[in-house]
Write a structure and sequence with these properties.
This is KEOPS complex subunit. By secondary structure, this protein is α+β, with helices and mostly antiparallel strands. It has helices at about 15-30, 35-40, 60-85, and strands at about 1-10, 40-50, 50-60. The protein has a single domain (about 1-85), classed as Alpha-D-phosphohexomutase, C-terminal domain (TATA-Binding Protein), CATH 3.30.310.50.
């Protein structure tokens, strides 16, 4: 099924330094999108105060969007684990 979607996802951390580290880790991951996805998927992550804000814009098959969002959440989890004890 073909869709067009826009989403804003906000993760609240309460610590600006941790939010910045997580956002920077996600932006590195976002920059390495496969060439085939770059035309249909736009992902921008930034940090503000203690929050990480990711905006997603997508046009294509819903299954691809679900996989991309799953990858995003997995990347957030890894970044959280790495920054948890720093």
């Amino acid at each position: 099924m073909r869709i067009e979607a826009k989403a804003e996802i906000v993760w609240h951390y309460g610590e600006a330094t941790r939010a910045e580290a997580i956002a920077e880790a996600l932006e590195v991951d976002n920059a390495n999108l496969p060439d085939g996805l770059k035309k249909s998927l736009n992902v921008i992550t930034r940090w503000e105060d203690g929050d990480v804000i990711t905006k997603v814009k997508y046009s294509g098959e819903i299954e691809t969007l679900i996989k991309a969002l799953d990858d995003l959440v997995f990347s957030v989890k890894i970044a959280e684990d790495v920054t948890e004890n720093v």
